[in-house]
Design brief:
With 411 residues, the chain is an alpha+beta fold. The chain has helices at 7-15, 20-23, 27-30, 37-45, 50-74, 81-107, 110-113, 121-129, 134-155, 161-238, 240-269, 273-286, 304-322, 352-363, 387-410; strands spanning 290-292, 326-331, 335-340, 366-373, 376-383. The two termini are 33 Å apart.
Length: 411
């Protein structure tokens, strides 16, 4: 079976909310099917028998169906980069057969409506534009334009310069749209690569900082401890009191060095909100959950460390237990809210993670609230000075979630 019609692809087509046909992106390509009225009229008014006209209309019907399916299945509108990579491998084996079927169906109309068949060229240009590499797209569009002039001349038909002008306009528009979209995609990829590079550089800088801290703390302290312990060993018999003083200083230096090492390790283990948002985005994407997160560079709050702990625990629970398809995070000056549309429960009990998080928030002078039902779960950490503002955010999230659930019931 063709990869385009494999069992997995058929299941994905009907069940995956990320497919283009379930998000109405395919309408952009399918809306132009209104122009099929021209070849339909040409077939109906042609000087052919009723049987031949019926065959022509059936051909156009099949052409329209194949083109519509191509819009649904092949338009490059999958949101997740990881999902794209897995889907493209399957699509490559089925793209060109679909284009070939469209070309064959169009050619079958030549004996019926002659040069007016080129009214279908715009659909072929559109199909090629979203299944072919850019060079192939440009070559195919110019080939179709050339054919609209050469084929009628070779077969003794009339050359319809109006159709040729329309084809030129459509072709140039398709090429321009493709160029703009590819430039935008390249820009997004460049930005993503820069973000990855910045993250890697941040890790390297952190490692260098740790190396410097460890060297400064242990290098100096161990050197002094070594010298003083050696001196104390020599003074044990000669000056016991001095030896005791040196040993006491060694003990104090050891404790001081240990405290500084613990401080360094604690700094490494303390999460940062910007890096926490980046990690959350990565974890949610890996789990196939659509994430709506604030820009890490704009997430500024005096409670960044506390909110990073809240974000980490909430996202971990979403990925592990919720079965959600989307997650939204709001970060304000004195509050953070994490909402998902997974399967929650009004009887949700605090596990060790949420219980420890609640204690951490309370120790910082705030309040942790968890609201869960069949429409999802809402986790809100609010500092005491922002109680009213947090209530407003929870009400807004609740209204949006109820609205989404209502829309789902209507569908």
């Amino acid at each position: 079976m063709s990869p385009l019609l494999s069992r997995d692809r058929i299941v994905t087509f009907f069940d995956d909310d990320r497919m283009p046909w379930r998000q109405w992106r395919w309408v952009f390509g399918a809306v132009w099917m209104i122009f099929l009225v021209y070849p339909v009229v040409s077939v109906a008014q042609s000087d052919n028998t009723t049987f031949v006209k019926a065959l022509g209309l059936v051909d156009l019907g099949v052409f329209a169906t194949v083109y519509l399916v191509a819009c649904m299945l092949l338009m490059d509108a999958v949101p997740s980069a990881a999902y794209k990579s897995s889907m493209h491998a399957d699509q490559d084996g089925g793209r060109w057969p679909v284009a070939g079927v469209l070309v064959v169906l169009a050619c079958l109309l030549f004996p019926i409506i002659h040069e007016e068949t080129f009214a279908l060229a715009g659909f072929l240009m559109a199909a090629v534009s979203f299944i072919a590499p850019r060079r192939v797209q440009v070559a195919a569009i110019f080939a179709l334009i050339a054919a609209s002039y050469l084929v009628p001349r070779l077969l003794g038909w009339d050359v319809d310069f109006g159709v040729i002008a329309i084809m030129v306009a459509i072709g140039m528009t398709m090429i321009a749209i493709r160029a703009v979209s590819e430039r935008e995609r390249d820009r997004e990829q460049s930005v993503e690569r820069q973000r990855e590079l910045n993250a890697e550089l941040a890790v390297v800088a952190e490692r260098e900082s740790v190396a410097r801290d460890v060297h400064d703390i242990l290098g100096h302290s161990l050197t002094v401890i070594s010298v003083k312990s050696e001196l104390a060993s020599r003074l044990i018999d000669l000056d016991p009191e001095r030896a005791k003083a040196e040993i006491a200083e060694v003990n104090a230096l050891s404790r001081e060095a240990l405290a500084e090492v613990r401080s360094t390790v604690g700094r490494l283990r303390t999460p940062e909100l910007p890096s926490g948002l980046a990690s959350a985005a990565s974890a949610l994407a890996a789990a196939g959950i659509v994430a709506d997160l604030p820009d890490p560079a704009e997430a500024r709050t005096p409670h960044a460390t506390l909110f990073a702990w809240v974000l980490r625990e909430a996202v971990t629970n979403i990925v592990r237990h919720s079965g959600a398809s989307s997650c939204r995070v709001w970060v304000g000056c004195d509050e953070i809210t994490v909402a998902d549309d997974g399967t929650g429960s009004a009887m949700l009990a605090f596990g060790n993670g949420l219980r420890g998080l609640s204690e951490r928030v309370a120790d910082a002078g705030g309040e942790l609230r968890v609201e869960s039902d069949e429409h999802g779960t809402l986790v809100t950490a609010t500092m005491v000075t922002a109680t009213v503002r947090a209530t407003t955010v929870r009400d807004r999230v609740g209204r949006e979630r109820d609205g989404a659930a209502h829309d789902g019931m209507n569908r």
